[in-house]
Structure formats: C-alpha cells, structure tokens
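Data availability (excerpt). The following record was deposited with the supplementary files.
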Amino acid sequence: MSETSTKPYLLRALYEWCTDNGFTPYIVVAVDAYTRVPMEFVKNGEIVLNISFEATGNLKMDNDLIMFKARFGGVSREIEIPVENVSAIYARENGQGMAFEVKRGEGAGDGQKSSVPNAKVTPAKATPLTAVTPTSSDDPDHGGDEPPPKNGGRPRLTRIK
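Predicted structure:
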C-alpha cells in the first residue's frame, strides 16, 4: 500500500487557518494539460487564484484534485487543479503560507501532456513564505478584482531556502 501525500492535508489546513483568521487564501498553480483554468490569466506557466468562500462556489479540496466554480470577467468557469500542481498557498493580507516544490515534466505549462502524468511533482519539500512589498508599480494583477492591501501594495511570495 502506497503512502498518502501530506500535501493535500497541508493545503486544507492552511485554507482553514486563513478563513479562521479572516484572511483571503490564494493558491499558486503550475499550469499544464491536466489543469483546467482560464488560460488568458496564465502568466509564465502559472496562475494565482483566490480560493476564498466569497470567490468560489462548490469548493472541493480532495487528495488528488481541487475543484470549484469561479467568475472571471463576469463569466462563470469550472476550475480543476491537480493537487500536485499547487506550488503555494498563502494569505493575501500578510503573505504567510507554504510553498511546495513542483517539478515540471515535459510540456508542463505549454499545453502538452507529459508522457508520465505523475512524474511532474515532488511535493515532499515545503518552504515557508514571507511577504515582500513591491517596489515598482508594474506588479501584475493575476486577474484579481480586489483592491491592494491597506499597507500599500500586493504581497509577493519569496521562497526562503
């Protein structure tokens, strides 16, 4: 019997921590052929998604797949994300969360399928995140409709090794 990954449990725990503390949970997703997201919001093979209760409908976080409905530009979309493609989860307001190592297989991010579907991700390593205030005004919006945080800018993720 193979051992179950801890990653989906950590994602659910951090989601719950965010909501219990009044924070907005965001996830960073490595997009590939197995990821169903609005491609017009994908930048550099990644998309950042607000997964708060207010932004999603029918959110379901299973051990293998995160599914929900969300509106993008007023249009409702069905979103499906393999848990192995989530590279980070964090609170929008303070940047606290966790990053996961995502190993991209051939074709990941360019719409082509890898010949080995489960070889894309190594979720065993997790990295704590810190918030960094942007220094320039050219910060990409990643498709969010929310105003920037009160401290003056959108939090940025910085991996600490």
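Summary of structural features: The radius of gyration is 15 Å.
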